[in-house]
Design brief:
The protein has about 180 residues and is α/β, with parallel strands linked by helices. The protein has one domain: Flavodoxin domain (Rossmann fold, 3-Layer(aba) Sandwich), CATH 3.40.50.360. It is built from 5 helices and 10 strands. The structure holds flavin mononucleotide (FMN). Flavin mononucleotide binds next to helix 1, helix 2, strand 6 and strand 9.
Length: about 180
């Protein structure tokens, strides 16, 4: 695994232009820091607001693998903090999930179900981080976003061996490409 994890406590949101027409939020779950590190680096590059979602009842070390891994494989949802996520200030959301049992985590499944106040025209980018094999882990997230009326325009899978800076740069390029398309 890469040492590029980020275990620092969540800090103040980065300097996204909240409510601006290009405002971006990165909504993510991370247990061991890989997804968090990419989310934080990308937020700095993009000027996005970070929204970290956590399980309401934290996983113990083995609980992640047994309860969490099984719930993920079954497409189940976990109770989360925050319980609801207001995305009304944002025209683009980036959703980041670790891969568990080749699926998105139960925390991210719940987070996508609890998105509130999507603007007309709000779009999404999805990314997943994995050790080696992601399966189709981004697909359920893209489908759930689609059902919520938020089309997922791009998706990425980042294996843990990929440098955080490269992953964050790929997300920033994706955002820029969407911004250019919207201006056409
Ligand atoms: C319960 C569990 C299941 C996992 N399943 C997979 C898997 O199916 N494929 C894979 O490549 N990595 C798997 N992993 C590894 C994680 O996806 C990977 O390390 C991820 O980047 C962790 O993100 P985080 O550090 O943000 O929590 C699993 C990890 C856990 C805890």
């Amino acid at each position: 695994m890469t040492p590029d994890t980020d275990t620092a406590p969540p800090g103040a949101p980065s300097a996204g232009i909240i409510g601006g027409k290009d405002a971006v939020a990165i909504i993510y779950h991370s247990e061991t820091g890989h997804t968090r590190a990419i989310a934080r680096k990308a937020a700095n590059l993009i000027g996005a607001t970070l929204i970290e979602v956590k399980p309401k009842y934290p996983y113990c070390r083995m609980g992640k693998y047994f309860r969490g891994g099984e719930m993920a494989a079954l497409g189940m949802k976990e109770a989360i903090i925050p319980a609801e996520i207001d995305i009304s200030p944002y025209s683009l959301i980036i959703v980041g999930t670790p891969v568990w049992s080749q699926h998105p985590t139960p925390v991210i499944n719940r987070a996508v179900a609890e998105l509130q106040g999507a603007r007309e025209g709000c779009e999404a980018i999805v990314f997943a981080t994995c050790f080696r094999y992601a399966g189709k882990a981004t697909t359920p997230v893209q489908e759930a976003l689609g059902r919520a009326g938020i089309p997922a325009r791009k998706s990425y899978v980042f294996p843990n061996r990929a440098p955080v800076a490269d992953c964050a740069a790929a997300l920033a390029e994706g955002v820029e490409a969407l911004r250019i398309e919207r201006k056409l």
